[in-house]
Amino acid sequence: MLDALEAHPDAGTPVLHWFSGTQRELARAVDLDCWFSIGPTMLAGEKGKTLAARMPRDRVLTETDGPFAQLEGRAALPWDAEKAIVLLADVWAEPEAAVRERLAANLRRLGMA
Q1: Which residue has the higher pLDDT, 20 or 67?
Q2: 5 to each of 9, 10, 20, how far by Cα in Å?
Q3: Residue 38 in 3-state DSSP?
Q4: Strand spans (E) along the chain
Q5: Domain ranges of the chain
Q6: Ordered strands of the 60-62 beta sheet
């Protein structure tokens, strides 16, 4: 995907869903001005938390990956994105209100709200 983005720099704003690459790939994605969507299931593991901690906070959005991702033994639902805010607050060591505000600003900046 990153190779394709480099080959087509005018293709639009890339939002990488549930990014699970290496630290080097993350740095490359950041250099390519990628955005990242993060859900609660991604933040359940240490790798996801580590990646989320290193993503530019002004290019992060929430998502659930529902109905494919599982939360508490059931398919993730749209309102489960709220759980990602709680988990991101912990990963970023910021108050939930600040994380919620940042994510809303990100949506507005991307033109989705």
Answers
A1: 20
A2: 6, 8, 17
A3: strand
A4: 15-17, 35-38, 60-62, 70-71, 74-75
A5: 2-110
A6: 15-17, 35-38, 60-62
Distances (CA, A) of 89 to 78, 98, 108: 19, 8, 20
pLDDT per position as a tens digit, 47-61: 999 999 999 999 999
Distance CA 36, CA 61 (A): 6
Cα–Cα distance, 105 to 113 (Å, whole number): 9
Instruction: Please give the sequence-ordered ranges of beta strands (E in DSSP) within 27-89, or none if there are none.
Output: 35-38, 60-62, 70-71, 74-75
Which single residue is written with the structure tokens 């190779």?
A: 3
CATH number at 2-110: 3.20.20.140
pLDDT, tens only, 67-91: 777 778 888 777 888 899 999 999 9
86-101 per-position pLDDT tens digit: 999 999 999 999 999 9
Integer Cα distance of 31 and 79 in angstroms: 31
CB 53 within 8 A of CB 42: no
Considering just the CA atoms, what is the radius of gyration of the chain in Å?
14
